[in-house]
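Researcher: Good morning. I'm working through a list of sequences from a screen, and I'd like to move beyond sequence-only analysis. For each chain I'm collecting a predicted structure so we can compare shapes side by side. This is the next one on the list. No need for commentary yet; just the structure.
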Amino acid sequence: MSGRGSTFLGLLLAAGATPAGAQVQATVPSISDNSFLMEEAYNQEPGVVQHISAFQLFRGADAWAYTFTQEWPLSGRTHQLSFTLPIERTHDGSSVATGLGDVAVNYRYQLAGAERLSVAPRFSLLLPTGRARSDLGAGALGVQVNVPVSLLVANKVVTHWNAGGAVTPSAKNAVGDQATTVAYNLGASVVWLMRPTFNLLLEVVWTREETVTGAGRTAASHALSIGPGIRWAHNFSSGLQIVPGIAFPIGVGPSAGDDAVLLYLSFEHPFRRGSR
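Model: Good morning. C-alpha cells for this chain:
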C-alpha cells in the first residue's frame, strides 16, 4: 500500500473516534469504545478521556500504519475535541520511508443523540506535518468532513454508516509538483453485542483518493475492504476501562490482495471526580 493511501485510511481509522457506551444497558460497564475503520456517532461522556491506539500491518507490502488518538469532551457531550497522530511506514515500490504523517485536529458535534438514532458530524484540520517528499504527507493544509450515523436495529444489534470527504489545496508530491486533491469515503458496519464486554464487528469501507502526478494534475485510486473483528473489555473499580481488539481487513475488487491485520487498544478513564 502506498504512503498516501495508508495515511488516509489511518485518519479514518481513528480521527474523531467516538465511544459506543449508549449501545447497551447492563449491570457491568459496557464497551464504551469506537469501531476500527468506522466512526460511531456517540460523543465522549462528560468527564471521561479516551486514549486510542490502532496498528495496521499490510500483508506483503512492507508497510504499516499506527495512529494514536486522544478524545476530550467540552463540558458536556454536545461538543468534543480530539487529535490524531499517525506514524507510518510507506512503500511505493521503489523507496521506503518511516515517520510522522499528517496530524489531524478534530471537532465533533452531537447533532442527534436519541436512544436508537445518533448523528455526530466531524470537522478536521489535516496539518502538513508529514514529509511530502517521502510520501508521508500531503505537504499542505487540508480539511476533512465525516458524518457518522448510528442506528440501533435490535436489542443487541447496532449499525453504523459513514459518508465524508477531504480536500487539500496545493497538495504536493515527492518532487514538489502541486495540485488540489480530493478524497471521499463511504462505509457501513454492524456490531453484534453478544455480551456487554464482548462484541463482534463487520465493517465495509470504500475510499476514493487522488494523488498529485504533475503540476495541476492528479490521478484517482479506489479501495474497498471488508473487515471482520472482535473487541472485548476489562473493567476496573477505579473507572478505568481497557478495550483490546483485533480485525482482519480484506481487500476486495480494486483492492484484492491488500489485506491487513489490525490491532487495537483503548484506555478510557474519568479525569475528574464524579464522572461516570
